[in-house]
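Consider the tokenized backbone below.
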């Protein structure tokens, strides 16, 4: 169903009539299983190759394992709160900012959109860095020269991402590409696990001590906590939920259960196996650590590159939806006007992403900063407070206290994590020049 200028009423649970706001993209067209794969694609994107180094190394075995389990539980709870508010107030909120604006007003609408834009821009920047790293790793498997630097590979990756964005008009159109994404994910995840296990078995005892001075350990630990929440959360749940078929709340909960059960297992396996095999020397791109046949490592890196191209499209889709709706880009995706618009606007947006990626290719730092300044506020602070405001007459005192504790705790964590991430970026910026070849 394409968006149009009229508002169409549909019915969800009970007698509630739900209004679907105007949008140029498709809504209510996907099964919960397809949406579950969209969510799982976000979790098991090529970012999973960084969690051994970005989460386990700063936290160690005890706090790393406990942290991942706790992050899984609290992330599921927070996402369920947002999912249950999708039809709050007798209308359907297909954008995060629409929901915040409906509950709080116009100022909250603008702030939420700003936070979400920063979140998605940073995630997309990280995907382009990942894509560039994967291409570079593939190149050096077959060549000994150093003429090609990381910024060149980032530029190539950004160009391919732009071509894909131009060819896929909206989130629901991914369909078969989600199958390819799952296949590519399985390739690099299985290869990373198998080669890491082989290296671990054949290696002497590893050093699992947390590296750094006491001061640096404090900051890296806080940054790792931001990476924990970054791993499990999209910051665009209402936009994904907009694509799901009726009943939207019930089906979204099914998708979330799928995401946080079956979907998290590959992430756990890669994070734990990589850290077990290489200890405190684990890289933030695990495929840089593994040894094995060249063709196997090449297959893993190429799969990571291709999967990142697809996954980036998911996290860029809210921006695409906003621009397409704002300028009335709908109907035949191959129409000259629509195709030209996507070439110019999406191409321009990803050009900026690519430039930032090449300037500051510090992937772990970007993960920390994204978690701090946008994932914490959107997923935990805002979700818990919105639920308090929306359901205040139906919550018991203990429930209200629990949500307020979440708001307070994650507010403190957000500030601390932002300071830690900015410090890490400042340190790395002194160590490396812009357009660094990491």
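A designed sequence for it:
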């Amino acid at each position: 169903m394409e968006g149009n200028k009229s508002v169409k009423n549909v019915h969800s649970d009970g007698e509630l009539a739900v209004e679907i706001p105007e949008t140029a993209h498709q809504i209510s067209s996907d099964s919960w299983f397809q949406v579950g794969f969209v969510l799982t694609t976000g979790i098991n994107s090529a970012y999973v190759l960084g969690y051994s180094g970005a989460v386990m190394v700063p936290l160690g075995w005890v706090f790393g394992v406990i942290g991942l389990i706790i992050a899984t539980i609290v992330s599921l709870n927070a996402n369920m709160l947002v999912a249950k508010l999708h039809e709050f107030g007798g209308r359907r909120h297909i954008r995060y900012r629409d929901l915040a604006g409906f509950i709080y007003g116009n100022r909250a609408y603008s702030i939420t959109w700003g936070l979400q834009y920063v979140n998605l821009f940073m995630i997309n920047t990280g995907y382009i860095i990942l894509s560039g790293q994967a291409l570079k790793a593939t190149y050096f498997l077959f060549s000994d020269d150093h003429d090609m630097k990381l910024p060149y590979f980032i530029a190539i990756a950004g160009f391919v991402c732009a071509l894909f964005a131009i060819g896929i008009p909206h989130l629901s159109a991914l369909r078969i590409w989600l199958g390819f994404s799952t296949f590519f994910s399985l390739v690099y995840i299985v290869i990373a696990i198998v080669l890491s296990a082989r290296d671990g078995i054949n290696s002497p005892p590893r050093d699992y001590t947390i590296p750094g001075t006491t001061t640096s350990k404090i900051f890296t630990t806080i940054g790792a906590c931001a990476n924990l929440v970054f791993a499990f959360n999209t910051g665009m749940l209402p936009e994904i939920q907009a694509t799901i078929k009726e009943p939207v709340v019930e089906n979204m909960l099914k998708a979330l259960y799928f995401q946080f059960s079956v979907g998290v297992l590959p992430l756990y396996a890669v994070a734990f196996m990589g850290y077990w095999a290489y200890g405190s020397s684990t890289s933030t791109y695990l495929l840089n650590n593994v040894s094995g046949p060249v063709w196997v490592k090449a297959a893993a890196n190429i799969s990571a590159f291709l999967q990142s191209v697809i996954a980036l499209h998911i996290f860029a889709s809210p921006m695409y939806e906003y621009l397409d709706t704002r300028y009335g880009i709908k109907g035949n995706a191959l129409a000259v006007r629509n195709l030209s618009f996507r070439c110019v606007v999406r191409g321009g947006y990803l050009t900026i992403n690519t430039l930032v990626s090449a300037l500051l290719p510090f992937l772990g730092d970007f993960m920390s900063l994204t978690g701090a300044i946008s994932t914490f506020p959107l997923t935990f602070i805002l979700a818990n407070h919105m639920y308090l405001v929306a359901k205040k007459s139906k919550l018991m005192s203990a429930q209200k206290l629990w949500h307020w504790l979440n708001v307070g705790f994650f507010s403190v964590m957000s500030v601390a994590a932002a300071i830690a991430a900015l410090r890490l970026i400042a340190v790395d910026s002194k160590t490396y020049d812009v357009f660094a070849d990491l």
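Residues 8-431 form a domain with the Amino acid/polyamine transporter I fold (CATH 1.20.1740.10).
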